[in-house]
């Protein structure tokens, strides 16, 4: 199994394509430039199975419509942010001058921590609110990686000044849900380069003293 990071959209959020040797793949957070993601999937002759959302801010959902026009893919999102897909005020696109983003496709809503099985892919869902109320981190034990969205970054953490953000809740999510993963776990976040759980435990200044 392999992953590919594709920075997309006006603020270069990370979309990810996770693929298996059998040619199937899933797409995390197609936040913009959906045609670019479609082309990359076609170039690799992959068969996409699903769109997985860590949360529903505009820079993580803005490319969904292009993928849905090409393939009839299920969209997975936490139930707390279902309405954000269609509401530019909630997903933030109404305030950033980049055009209003609305996704008018019915998603599959997730609730509670569970194992999500999609084809041969298996993910442990970790509820990690704080950056947004329905933030989810997807832990893939097979590749020792967690797709953390905007919860945890290399040397930083997610912002909490947007609607529904809560700084203390975010820190609690990181400590209780992410820092309990094996230290070698790759953190594939919503912006910037990858890091590891161990590296953030040792060096991330936002996590010390909590």
Describe the protein's architecture and organization.
- Keywords: Hydrolase, Metal-binding, Zinc.
- InterPro entries: MBL_Glyoxalase_II, Metallo-B-lactamas, RibonucZ/Hydroxyglut_hydro.
- The protein has 210 residues and is an alpha/beta fold.
- The protein has a single domain, classed as Ribonuclease Z/Hydroxyacylglutathione hydrolase-like (Metallo-beta-lactamase, Chain A, 4-Layer Sandwich).
- The protein has helices spanning 34-43, 58-61, 64-70, 88-91, 167-178, 197-203; strands at residues 2-8, 13-19, 24-28, 47-52, 75-78, 108-110, 115-118, 121-127, 136-140, 145-149, 152-153, 156-157, 186-189, 195-196.
- The protein has a 6-stranded mixed beta sheet, covered by helices on one side. The chain has a 6-stranded mixed beta sheet with strand order 7-8-9-10-13-14. The protein has a two-stranded antiparallel sheet with strand order 11-12.
- A hairpin with an 8-residue loop joins β8 and β9.
- It is globular.
- The chain starts with a strand and ends in a 7-residue tail after the last helix.
- The mean pLDDT is 96.
């Amino acid at each position: 199994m392999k992953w590919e990071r594709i920075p997309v959209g006006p603020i270069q959020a990370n979309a990810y394509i996770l693929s298996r040797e059998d040619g199937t793949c899933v797409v995390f957070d197609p936040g913009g430039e959906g045609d670019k993601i479609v082309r990359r999937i076609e170039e690799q002759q992959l068969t996409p199975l699903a769109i997985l959302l860590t949360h529903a801010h505009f820079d993580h959902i803005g490319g969904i419509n292009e993928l849905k026009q090409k393939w009839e893919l299920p969209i997975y999102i936490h139930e707390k942010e279902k309405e954000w897909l269609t509401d530019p005020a909630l997903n933030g696109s109404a305030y950033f001058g980049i055009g209003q983003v609305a996704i008018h496709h019915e998603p599959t809503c997730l609730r509670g921590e569970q194992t999500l099985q999609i084809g041969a892919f298996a993910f442990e869902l970790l509820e990690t609110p704080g950056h947004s109320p329905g933030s989810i981190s997807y832990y893939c034990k097979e590749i020792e990686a967690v797709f953390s969205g905007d919860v945890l970054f290399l040397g930083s953490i997610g912002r909490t000044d947007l609607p529904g953000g809560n700084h203390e809740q975010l820190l609690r999510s990181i400590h209780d849900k992410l820092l309990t993963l094996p230290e070698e776990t790759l953190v594939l976040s919503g912006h910037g380069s990858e890091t590891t759980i161990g590296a953030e435990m040792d060096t991330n200044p936002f996590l010390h003293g909590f």
